[in-house]
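fyi for ur records
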Amino acid sequence: MAMIYWLALPAMGRRVMGDGPSAIVWFLNWAYVHFFHRLRASGTEIVPDTLAAGPLVVICNHQSPIDPLLVQAKCRFKIRWLMAEEFMLPAADFVWKLGEIIPVARDGNDTAGLRTALRHLRNNGVIGIFPEGGIKEPRNAVHPFLEGAGAMIAKTNAKVLLAIVDGTPQNDDMAKALIERSHSTVKFVELRSYPENATGKEITNELRSRIAEITRWPLVN
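which gave:
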């Protein structure tokens, strides 16, 4: 049985995520978000159907701690998410390492995480960003975006996959959100490139405006 398990791991990795252990977690997450959060997705036809989708930046609004799980469940390729280091609980250290989560300091004083993300994009990787910088109230609104998201896209000329989540657990606590049932949705709305002369600020502003336009949620400061 153990031999069958280890022989199956490479095959699973060739289907999703690129490696066997990550593929197992992906399948478990797929089952979790579909059965526990009754995930419904649309626009998946624009999601690259490949393990090597980069350089690509996934941009998404932020409503719940489970948002990365919803988006990743609809992508075969591994998304390395940027995450505020204060939310990376030591008890889930195995998850952070397996998902290759990139910790960042929200005060902007530590640039190591941003350098790691840029290096990953330049190596044709995929980075996931919640440019609102955290879960803000009201949730059905578009809050100011951190300019670092657009700057990262401008510096690497990466494509952008724009996603919108809604209907997620209304609990900011990660442990509680994981066990709060929901009718979550993820909508992939755009896969595009920006001109080489586009500035980070222009890209950031355009992405924020697009989410407001599609959702019809108000822009708030």
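The radius of gyration is 17 Å. thats all i got for now
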